[in-house]
Protein backbone atom coordinates (compact mmCIF):
# COMPACT_ATOMS: atom_id res chain seq x y z
CA UNK A 1 0.00 0.00 0.00
CA UNK A 2 1.23 3.46 -0.76
CA UNK A 3 -0.55 6.69 -0.02
CA UNK A 4 0.01 9.89 -1.96
CA UNK A 5 0.02 13.41 -0.61
CA UNK A 6 -3.39 14.55 -1.75
CA UNK A 7 -3.75 18.30 -2.29
CA UNK A 8 -7.36 18.07 -3.53
CA UNK A 9 -9.65 21.00 -2.77
CA UNK A 10 -12.45 18.60 -1.88
CA UNK A 11 -13.33 15.88 -1.22
CA UNK A 12 -9.95 15.98 0.41
CA UNK A 13 -7.35 14.26 2.54
CA UNK A 14 -8.48 12.65 5.80
CA UNK A 15 -6.22 11.81 8.76
CA UNK A 16 -4.60 8.42 8.21
CA UNK A 17 -5.21 7.53 11.86
CA UNK A 18 -8.93 8.12 11.39
CA UNK A 19 -9.09 6.01 8.23
CA UNK A 20 -7.36 3.17 10.05
CA UNK A 21 -9.77 3.42 12.94
CA UNK A 22 -12.72 3.31 10.55
CA UNK A 23 -11.15 0.33 8.84
CA UNK A 24 -10.75 -1.52 12.13
CA UNK A 25 -14.39 -0.80 13.02
CA UNK A 26 -15.72 -1.54 9.57
CA UNK A 27 -17.07 -5.07 9.80
CA UNK A 28 -17.92 -5.13 13.46
CA UNK A 29 -18.50 -1.80 15.15
CA UNK A 30 -17.82 -2.17 18.87
CA UNK A 31 -18.95 -5.79 18.98
CA UNK A 32 -22.39 -5.19 17.49
CA UNK A 33 -21.61 -7.42 14.50
CA UNK A 34 -22.29 -4.85 11.81
CA UNK A 35 -20.81 -1.71 10.34
CA UNK A 36 -22.03 1.81 11.02
CA UNK A 37 -23.29 1.82 7.40
CA UNK A 38 -25.64 -1.03 8.19
CA UNK A 39 -27.20 0.01 11.46
CA UNK A 40 -30.52 1.74 12.03
CA UNK A 41 -30.31 5.46 12.61
CA UNK A 42 -32.84 4.83 15.40
CA UNK A 43 -30.58 2.35 17.20
CA UNK A 44 -29.01 3.21 20.53
CA UNK A 45 -25.61 2.43 18.99
CA UNK A 46 -26.06 5.14 16.36
CA UNK A 47 -27.63 7.49 18.86
CA UNK A 48 -24.43 7.30 20.90
CA UNK A 49 -22.43 8.17 17.78
CA UNK A 50 -24.42 11.30 16.91
CA UNK A 51 -24.70 12.50 20.51
CA UNK A 52 -20.95 12.06 21.02
CA UNK A 53 -20.17 13.82 17.71
CA UNK A 54 -22.30 16.79 18.69
CA UNK A 55 -20.73 16.92 22.14
CA UNK A 56 -17.23 16.92 20.64
CA UNK A 57 -17.83 19.64 18.04
CA UNK A 58 -19.39 21.72 20.82
CA UNK A 59 -16.21 21.28 22.86
CA UNK A 60 -13.93 22.06 19.91
CA UNK A 61 -15.68 25.32 19.02
CA UNK A 62 -16.96 26.16 22.53
CA UNK A 63 -20.46 26.36 21.08
CA UNK A 64 -22.83 28.08 23.54
CA UNK A 65 -26.05 26.35 24.61
CA UNK A 66 -28.22 28.77 22.65
CA UNK A 67 -26.82 27.46 19.36
CA UNK A 68 -28.10 24.31 17.64
CA UNK A 69 -25.79 22.00 15.75
CA UNK A 70 -27.50 20.39 12.75
CA UNK A 71 -26.12 17.52 10.68
CA UNK A 72 -27.69 18.03 7.26
CA UNK A 73 -27.63 16.59 3.77
CA UNK A 74 -27.56 18.44 0.47
CA UNK A 75 -24.10 19.94 0.90
CA UNK A 76 -23.25 23.58 1.37
CA UNK A 77 -25.23 24.36 -1.78
CA UNK A 78 -28.54 23.50 -0.13
CA UNK A 79 -27.77 26.00 2.61
CA UNK A 80 -27.44 28.69 -0.09
CA UNK A 81 -31.25 28.36 -0.30
CA UNK A 82 -31.95 27.43 3.31
CA UNK A 83 -30.28 30.60 4.64
CA UNK A 84 -32.60 33.06 2.83
CA UNK A 85 -35.66 30.81 3.23
CA UNK A 86 -35.21 30.65 7.00
CA UNK A 87 -33.79 34.11 7.63
CA UNK A 88 -35.33 36.62 5.22
CA UNK A 89 -38.44 36.80 7.34
CA UNK A 90 -38.45 40.33 8.75
CA UNK A 91 -37.44 42.65 5.94
CA UNK A 92 -36.94 40.19 3.08
CA UNK A 93 -33.59 41.79 2.47
CA UNK A 94 -29.97 40.77 3.01
CA UNK A 95 -26.45 41.99 2.26
CA UNK A 96 -23.83 39.79 0.59
CA UNK A 97 -20.10 40.29 0.21
CA UNK A 98 -18.98 38.56 -2.96
CA UNK A 99 -15.40 37.38 -2.65
CA UNK A 100 -15.53 34.52 -5.13
CA UNK A 101 -17.66 31.96 -6.90
CA UNK A 102 -19.23 30.38 -3.84
CA UNK A 103 -20.29 33.72 -2.37
CA UNK A 104 -21.64 34.77 -5.77
CA UNK A 105 -23.62 31.55 -6.14
CA UNK A 106 -25.09 32.04 -2.67
CA UNK A 107 -25.93 35.65 -3.57
CA UNK A 108 -27.74 34.60 -6.74
CA UNK A 109 -29.65 31.89 -4.92
CA UNK A 110 -30.75 34.33 -2.19
CA UNK A 111 -32.03 36.78 -4.79
CA UNK A 112 -34.82 34.30 -5.57
CA UNK A 113 -36.29 34.93 -2.12
CA UNK A 114 -35.87 38.62 -1.44
CA UNK A 115 -33.89 41.75 -2.06
CA UNK A 116 -30.17 41.12 -2.06
CA UNK A 117 -27.61 43.91 -1.85
CA UNK A 118 -24.00 43.37 -2.87
CA UNK A 119 -22.18 45.16 -0.05
CA UNK A 120 -18.66 44.73 -1.41
CA UNK A 121 -16.85 42.58 -3.93
CA UNK A 122 -13.32 41.70 -4.98
CA UNK A 123 -14.33 40.82 -8.51
CA UNK A 124 -12.33 43.75 -9.94
CA UNK A 125 -9.10 41.85 -9.25
CA UNK A 126 -10.34 38.31 -9.95
CA UNK A 127 -11.15 37.81 -6.26
CA UNK A 128 -7.53 37.94 -5.12
CA UNK A 129 -8.23 39.90 -1.94
CA UNK A 130 -10.73 40.39 0.88
CA UNK A 131 -12.28 43.87 0.64
CA UNK A 132 -12.18 46.35 3.50
CA UNK A 133 -15.27 45.50 5.54
CA UNK A 134 -14.97 48.10 8.27
CA UNK A 135 -17.66 50.46 7.00
CA UNK A 136 -19.99 48.74 4.54
CA UNK A 137 -23.36 50.17 3.42
CA UNK A 138 -25.22 47.91 5.85
CA UNK A 139 -28.70 49.06 6.88
CA UNK A 140 -30.97 48.05 9.78
CA UNK A 141 -33.51 46.58 7.40
CA UNK A 142 -31.19 43.75 6.37
CA UNK A 143 -32.10 40.39 7.86
CA UNK A 144 -28.46 39.30 7.73
CA UNK A 145 -25.03 39.91 6.22
CA UNK A 146 -23.44 37.00 4.38
CA UNK A 147 -19.82 36.04 3.77
CA UNK A 148 -17.90 33.08 2.41
CA UNK A 149 -15.15 32.98 5.03
CA UNK A 150 -12.56 31.03 3.06
CA UNK A 151 -12.59 31.26 -0.71
CA UNK A 152 -11.60 27.79 -1.80
CA UNK A 153 -11.04 28.63 -5.44
CA UNK A 154 -9.16 31.92 -5.09
CA UNK A 155 -7.25 31.20 -1.88
CA UNK A 156 -8.39 34.12 0.24
CA UNK A 157 -9.66 34.05 3.80
CA UNK A 158 -11.20 36.55 6.19
CA UNK A 159 -8.85 37.01 9.16
CA UNK A 160 -11.14 39.64 10.60
CA UNK A 161 -14.92 39.47 10.44
CA UNK A 162 -16.82 42.33 8.78
CA UNK A 163 -18.27 45.08 10.90
CA UNK A 164 -21.94 44.18 10.37
CA UNK A 165 -23.22 47.17 12.38
CA UNK A 166 -25.25 44.90 14.62
CA UNK A 167 -26.85 42.87 11.81
CA UNK A 168 -26.64 39.06 12.08
CA UNK A 169 -23.67 37.49 10.32
CA UNK A 170 -23.95 34.28 8.28
CA UNK A 171 -20.77 32.54 7.15
CA UNK A 172 -20.10 29.70 4.75
CA UNK A 173 -17.06 28.11 6.41
CA UNK A 174 -16.94 25.01 4.18
CA UNK A 175 -13.23 25.22 3.51
CA UNK A 176 -11.91 26.51 6.83
CA UNK A 177 -14.27 24.70 9.19
CA UNK A 178 -12.40 23.70 12.38
CA UNK A 179 -9.10 24.96 10.97
CA UNK A 180 -8.64 27.45 13.83
CA UNK A 181 -10.60 28.72 16.83
CA UNK A 182 -13.63 30.78 15.83
CA UNK A 183 -15.87 32.71 18.20
CA UNK A 184 -19.29 31.23 17.46
CA UNK A 185 -21.05 34.06 19.30
CA UNK A 186 -19.93 36.46 16.55
CA UNK A 187 -22.00 34.53 14.01
CA UNK A 188 -25.74 34.02 13.77
CA UNK A 189 -25.12 31.02 11.51
CA UNK A 190 -21.94 29.21 10.60
CA UNK A 191 -22.25 26.35 8.15
CA UNK A 192 -20.27 24.27 5.74
CA UNK A 193 -19.99 21.09 3.77
CA UNK A 194 -17.63 18.77 5.64
CA UNK A 195 -15.77 17.33 2.65
CA UNK A 196 -13.07 20.01 2.58
CA UNK A 197 -11.69 20.04 6.06
CA UNK A 198 -13.57 17.54 8.22
CA UNK A 199 -14.97 14.36 6.74
CA UNK A 200 -16.32 12.51 3.72
CA UNK A 201 -18.69 14.17 1.24
CA UNK A 202 -22.42 14.11 1.81
CA UNK A 203 -22.83 16.04 5.03
CA UNK A 204 -23.14 19.69 5.94
CA UNK A 205 -23.02 21.04 9.48
CA UNK A 206 -24.95 24.18 10.39
CA UNK A 207 -24.45 25.92 13.71
CA UNK A 208 -27.44 28.18 14.22
CA UNK A 209 -28.43 30.60 17.00
CA UNK A 210 -31.66 29.18 18.32
CA UNK A 211 -33.84 32.29 17.92
CA UNK A 212 -33.38 31.88 14.15
CA UNK A 213 -34.99 28.47 14.20
CA UNK A 214 -38.60 29.28 13.53
CA UNK A 215 -41.79 28.42 11.65
CA UNK A 216 -41.74 31.89 10.17
CA UNK A 217 -40.02 30.95 6.93
CA UNK A 218 -40.43 31.76 3.26
CA UNK A 219 -43.88 30.58 2.00
CA UNK A 220 -43.90 26.94 0.90
CA UNK A 221 -40.37 26.26 2.06
CA UNK A 222 -39.87 22.51 1.67
CA UNK A 223 -40.02 20.63 4.97
CA UNK A 224 -36.43 19.51 4.53
CA UNK A 225 -35.17 23.07 4.07
CA UNK A 226 -36.72 24.39 7.28
CA UNK A 227 -34.03 24.34 9.93
CA UNK A 228 -36.75 23.74 12.52
CA UNK A 229 -37.54 20.36 11.00
CA UNK A 230 -34.14 18.93 11.90
CA UNK A 231 -33.62 21.08 15.00
CA UNK A 232 -36.77 19.67 16.63
CA UNK A 233 -35.57 16.13 15.97
CA UNK A 234 -31.85 16.52 16.76
CA UNK A 235 -30.95 15.94 13.09
CA UNK A 236 -32.88 12.65 13.04
CA UNK A 237 -36.09 13.79 11.36
CA UNK A 238 -35.33 11.48 8.45
CA UNK A 239 -32.38 9.19 7.78
CA UNK A 240 -29.21 11.24 8.16
CA UNK A 241 -25.83 10.53 6.58
CA UNK A 242 -24.97 8.05 9.33
CA UNK A 243 -21.55 7.14 7.95
CA UNK A 244 -20.59 10.78 7.44
CA UNK A 245 -21.57 11.68 10.99
CA UNK A 246 -19.55 8.74 12.33
CA UNK A 247 -16.48 9.76 10.32
CA UNK A 248 -16.76 13.39 11.39
CA UNK A 249 -17.04 12.15 14.97
CA UNK A 250 -13.72 10.33 14.60
CA UNK A 251 -12.13 13.47 13.15
CA UNK A 252 -13.46 15.55 16.08
CA UNK A 253 -11.77 13.10 18.48
CA UNK A 254 -8.56 13.28 16.43
CA UNK A 255 -8.63 17.09 16.70
CA UNK A 256 -9.32 16.98 20.44
CA UNK A 257 -6.42 14.58 20.93
CA UNK A 258 -4.08 16.83 18.95
CA UNK A 259 -4.48 20.08 20.83
CA UNK A 260 -7.96 21.10 19.68
CA UNK A 261 -8.43 24.06 17.37
CA UNK A 262 -5.54 26.00 18.92
CA UNK A 263 -3.27 23.09 18.15
CA UNK A 264 -4.44 22.61 14.58
CA UNK A 265 -4.39 26.36 13.91
CA UNK A 266 -0.70 26.45 14.80
CA UNK A 267 0.06 23.52 12.53
CA UNK A 268 -1.96 25.04 9.70
CA UNK A 269 -0.21 28.41 10.01
CA UNK A 270 3.13 26.66 10.06
CA UNK A 271 2.36 24.65 6.88
CA UNK A 272 1.01 27.70 5.04
CA UNK A 273 4.09 29.74 6.00
CA UNK A 274 6.44 27.13 4.54
CA UNK A 275 4.63 27.30 1.21
CA UNK A 276 4.11 31.08 1.05
CA UNK A 277 7.70 31.79 2.13
CA UNK A 278 8.94 29.66 -0.73
CA UNK A 279 6.50 31.21 -3.24
CA UNK A 280 7.40 34.77 -2.22
CA UNK A 281 11.04 34.28 -3.13
CA UNK A 282 10.65 31.91 -6.09
CA UNK A 283 11.69 33.17 -9.50
CA UNK A 284 9.51 30.65 -11.29
CA UNK A 285 6.30 30.33 -9.25
CA UNK A 286 4.06 33.20 -8.21
CA UNK A 287 1.30 33.13 -5.63
CA UNK A 288 -1.90 34.58 -7.15
CA UNK A 289 -2.83 36.22 -3.85
CA UNK A 290 -0.21 38.91 -3.31
CA UNK A 291 -2.19 40.76 -0.62
CA UNK A 292 -0.64 38.97 2.36
CA UNK A 293 -3.38 39.79 4.86
CA UNK A 294 -6.00 38.12 2.60
CA UNK A 295 -4.15 34.84 2.15
CA UNK A 296 -5.84 31.59 3.01
CA UNK A 297 -4.09 29.04 5.19
CA UNK A 298 -6.15 26.33 3.49
CA UNK A 299 -5.96 26.84 -0.28
CA UNK A 300 -2.85 28.22 -1.96
CA UNK A 301 -3.07 28.96 -5.70
CA UNK A 302 0.10 29.66 -7.68
CA UNK A 303 1.17 29.97 -11.31
CA UNK A 304 4.29 30.05 -13.43
CA UNK A 305 2.70 32.33 -16.04
CA UNK A 306 3.30 29.71 -18.74
CA UNK A 307 0.43 27.27 -19.35
CA UNK A 308 2.64 24.56 -20.78
CA UNK A 309 5.00 24.75 -17.84
CA UNK A 310 2.06 24.59 -15.43
CA UNK A 311 0.83 21.44 -17.17
CA UNK A 312 4.32 19.95 -16.99
CA UNK A 313 4.47 20.74 -13.27
CA UNK A 314 1.11 19.09 -12.62
CA UNK A 315 2.13 15.95 -14.53
CA UNK A 316 5.55 15.64 -12.92
CA UNK A 317 4.30 16.36 -9.41
CA UNK A 318 1.66 13.66 -9.84
CA UNK A 319 4.34 11.19 -10.87
CA UNK A 320 6.20 12.12 -7.67
CA UNK A 321 3.19 11.26 -5.46
CA UNK A 322 1.88 14.81 -5.11
CA UNK A 323 -1.71 14.57 -6.31
CA UNK A 324 -4.44 16.98 -7.36
CA UNK A 325 -2.34 20.12 -7.71
CA UNK A 326 -4.03 21.34 -10.88
CA UNK A 327 -5.60 24.74 -10.27
CA UNK A 328 -9.23 25.71 -10.76
CA UNK A 329 -9.99 26.60 -14.37
CA UNK A 330 -10.87 30.21 -13.49
CA UNK A 331 -7.48 30.83 -11.87
CA UNK A 332 -5.32 28.47 -13.90
CA UNK A 333 -1.95 27.16 -12.77
CA UNK A 334 -1.86 25.15 -9.59
CA UNK A 335 -3.60 25.06 -6.23
CA UNK A 336 -2.39 23.28 -3.12
CA UNK A 337 -5.12 22.63 -0.59
CA UNK A 338 -3.41 22.04 2.73
CA UNK A 339 -6.32 21.28 5.04
CA UNK A 340 -6.11 20.01 8.63
CA UNK A 341 -5.24 16.45 7.62
CA UNK A 342 -2.37 17.38 5.29
CA UNK A 343 0.79 16.56 7.22
CA UNK A 344 3.63 19.06 7.39
CA UNK A 345 5.79 16.47 5.62
CA UNK A 346 3.47 16.74 2.61
CA UNK A 347 4.01 20.48 2.33
CA UNK A 348 7.75 20.05 2.81
CA UNK A 349 7.85 17.46 0.07
CA UNK A 350 5.90 19.79 -2.21
CA UNK A 351 8.30 22.67 -1.59
CA UNK A 352 11.34 20.45 -2.17
CA UNK A 353 9.77 19.27 -5.41
CA UNK A 354 9.08 22.87 -6.46
CA UNK A 355 12.65 23.95 -5.71
CA UNK A 356 13.94 21.14 -7.84
CA UNK A 357 11.47 21.92 -10.64
CA UNK A 358 12.48 25.58 -10.50
CA UNK A 359 16.18 24.73 -10.91
CA UNK A 360 15.48 22.56 -13.93
CA UNK A 361 13.01 24.87 -15.65
CA UNK A 362 14.07 28.42 -14.93
CA UNK A 363 15.36 29.89 -18.18
C1 LIG B 1 -17.04 23.30 -1.91
C2 LIG B 1 -17.71 24.53 -1.43
C3 LIG B 1 -19.10 24.70 -1.54
C4 LIG B 1 -20.00 23.69 -2.19
O1 LIG B 1 -20.13 22.59 -1.38
P1 LIG B 1 -21.12 21.37 -1.73
O2 LIG B 1 -21.08 20.58 -0.48
O3 LIG B 1 -20.56 20.69 -2.93
O4 LIG B 1 -22.47 21.94 -2.00
C5 LIG B 1 -19.65 25.86 -1.02
N1 LIG B 1 -18.89 26.79 -0.43
C6 LIG B 1 -17.55 26.66 -0.32
C7 LIG B 1 -16.75 27.73 0.34
C8 LIG B 1 -16.92 25.53 -0.82
O5 LIG B 1 -15.59 25.41 -0.72
TrEMBL record:
GO terms for cellular component: cytoplasm. Pyridoxal 5'-phosphate binds at residues 102, 152, 172, 195, 238-239. The modification N6-(pyridoxal phosphate)lysine is found at residue 196. Residues 4-350 form the Aminotransferase class V domain. Binds 1 pyridoxal phosphate per subunit. Signal peptide: none annotated. Belongs to the class-V pyridoxal-phosphate-dependent aminotransferase family. SerC subfamily. This is Phosphoserine aminotransferase. It comes from Candidatus Weimeria bifida.
